Description:
The complex is a heterodimer. By secondary structure, chain A is an all-alpha fold. Chain A is about 60% helix and about 0% strand. Chain A has 2 helices and no strands. Chain A is elongated. In chain A, about 45% of the residues are buried. Chain B contains 8 helices and no strands. The interface of A and B includes residues 8, 18, 34 and 40 of A.
Amino acid sequence: MVKKRLLALVAGLLALVALSGAASACYVIWYQPELPGALKKQVL
Amino acid sequence: MRLAQRLVRYLEQELHLTQDQAEIINYGLLSFMATTLNLLVLAAIGALLGVLKEALFITLVVMAFRKVSGGAHCDTLLTCTVTGTAVITAAAACTRLFAAGLASSPLFLAGAPALALVSTFLFAPADVPQKPITSARQRRILRTLSFLLLLGWSILGTSLWLTKNPFLYYYAGGNLGILWQSLLLTPAGYSFMSIISRLFSFIRQ
């Protein structure tokens, strides 16, 4: 149960990173991974 | 990047994620890993050359400006890491070598944000094929944030100049980062990054 919660927390944090990257002009500084289709639907 | 795929597959199985959710998490993980790798390499090189603080401050400034204004990117993680590290380290070394002159020159202190303002007015937010900015609302928000960031940067510079604050040393370094990021917004910056990408791809072959 604890393991699942921890994994869900990690997944949630990574989703937050992804959403923040999708909402900004480019991810952060150098490399810009291809924006997945699932995120294109969610951008503003 | 195989490590990222494995981790996402593991999360997908354990948490019964949908394909869309897995894609989003994969993107977040790739972004996180790429940024962490870039920062670690930069910190290591900066520490080796004795310009760690300057390099980290310039990176922070470039990151903040880049997040809202966009700009050209290299096509692979390796190319981006090498180019970004080389440019930031060079800017940090220039800060160390020429800070006395740069920090005492009102032309440089005011000129760099002024050039960035022109570049932002003409080209921001500048997107890339990997992440097109298609929403008009998002474009408007990012453009406004870019101007606000430059305004804040200029106010900071003016107050440091007026109070003769020693932090002006780092501000001069940050200005070099602002100039670099302003170049990346322009078509010349896109051409430059494209040449670098082609050069790396030629070396790899």
